[in-house]
Write a structure and sequence with these properties.
Length: 337
Amino acid sequence: MSPRTMKAIRLHEFGGPEVLRYDDVPVPEPGPGEVLVRVHAVGVNPPDWYAREGMPDVPPELKPPFSLPLIPGTDVSGVVEAVADDVEAFAAGDEVLGLLRFPASLQGAAYAEYVTAPATDLARKPAGVDHVAAAGLAMAGLTAWQFLIELGHDHPSPFQAARHQPMPLGADTTVLVNGAAGGVGHLALQLAKWRGAHVIAVASGTHEAFLRELGADEVLDYQKVRPEEVARDLDLVLDTVGGPDSRRFLRTLKRGGALYPVYFGEFDDEENEKLGVTVTATQVRSNGPQLAELARLLDAGTIRVAIDSTFPLEKAAAAHERAARGHLRGKIVLTVD
């Protein structure tokens, strides 16, 4: 008997969105500790296009193992179809969401009709949350959670020796979120508000009404002002843009403040010490229990996942083209019939 087949997006070579091919491949079998998920929706994230490009700008020692052909994708929402004999937490028919195998592998293989997933990477999807929102929550939500609320693991950061330790947030805390309209940014804004912080959102002016709906107390339009020149005495900056320009936010912090660049740049430890500030980062990791906490907040209406756009699985290349144009409002999600 021939094996069951499914549709999946695969890379046979590295390059632009055009290398994403819609293929017929065998349905995977769950191994020990895994479940088989019938996929309903897939969240699109930066690591997906890094994988598509072959991670050319990443030092070899930081690249996870991967080989071609490769099915990209890590964020999934769907229904459990089968479980390995040693899995007790889930059963066939359970609705689940997860961030799969990140950052250990770029072959999370979520761009497909079926995917196997470690049971520990999954959380139950609340009945009141649709699959599109659930798929958009995983990586972005866990990134915001692990930077702002609870790290939840002891793995060292690949970017620095110092261990990231989230600052306690409350009514006496002022937080600036740079890139506040994006996937991580709009969820981080909401989590900071949930903890009672005063939140300043930085984004283009076209997003102001959206950001205020999410709870932003102030909105800075970076196309009109330089936020590092107008913001002062901040307790915390979460820079979801990060990179070399992230140092510009050091001047906005009060002594004892902290800067968390999601995409880590170059910083001078002596300068940070002189200013009396902390600069730390981490790398998001799969975490089923934390994702369950986020799903509960989503179900309660405490946070929401904004959807920039959706594309059917076979149009994954168009989704990557949309991502490349930037200025996203929330998440891009692939839907699977």
